[in-house]
Design a protein that fits this description.
The complex is a heterodimer of chains A (about 110) and B (about 110).
Chain A (H helix, E strand, L loop, with lengths): L4 E3 L2 E4 L5 E6 L6 E7 L6 E7 L2 E5 L7 E4 L6 E5 L8 E8 L7 E2 L3 E5 L1
Parallel strand pairs in A: 2-11
Antiparallel strand pairs in A: 1-3, 3-8, 4-5, 4-9, 5-6, 7-8, 9-10, 9-11
Chain B lengths: L8 E5 L4 E6 L9 E6 L6 E6 L4 E2 L4 E4 L5 E6 L8 E7 L14 E6 L1
Classes of the chains: A mainly beta (about 110), B mainly beta (about 110).
Chain lengths: ~110, ~110
Amino acid sequence: DTGVSQDPRHKITKRGQNVTFRCDPISEHNRLYWYRQTLGQGPEFLTYFQNEAQLEKSRLLSDRFSAERPKGSFSTLEIQRTEQGDSAMYLCASTGQKNTEAFFGQGTRLTVV
Amino acid sequence: DAKTTQPPSMDCAEGRAANLPCNHSTISGNEYVYWYRQIHSQGPQYIIHGLKNNETNEMASLIITEDRKSSTLILPHATLRDTAVYYCIVLSAGNNRKLIWGLGTSLAVNP
């Protein structure tokens, strides 16, 4: 257990539905990252928060994706109008001001049917 | 960001040392080399990182060549639980510490 928790661990949804994932980082960590990983590939960066500010978004993050970190603690990633291509593992990681390594959660595996 | 090149797969006998190579010939002077691993269906796990000097911790050793163009991760006594995909990453030079991942090396530790 790294101290980063993600919920749910698995989500199956029908195409066109909206889904929301939650990430609780290590409490004193001010930086939070979302990544997406498809089968056989390394994780791909999606977005990054420092405290409550979203400082960077990947071009992978289409208009259907939105992420928030309202109080600088937990974060949510919402996907609207899901498509089959959204099926992937969504990973959350956090790192502190002086920490040099990222701590990852176990991920949320999304399957769009 | 500097790219890394790793062999797609390697095998190792249980109890023997596993030596995982990584090439990062375009690394910049202020960029670190990081190693993570990912056991099947789990989130990635930090292993070790270094800048110039060799590093050792309870999990592994990291050997970085003098020109910094390549490195080797050493698992001194591999166990079956070390079977995983190992990623060598050169840390983004920016302050955000965004990780750029390649395909990694799939290490199979055999009994």
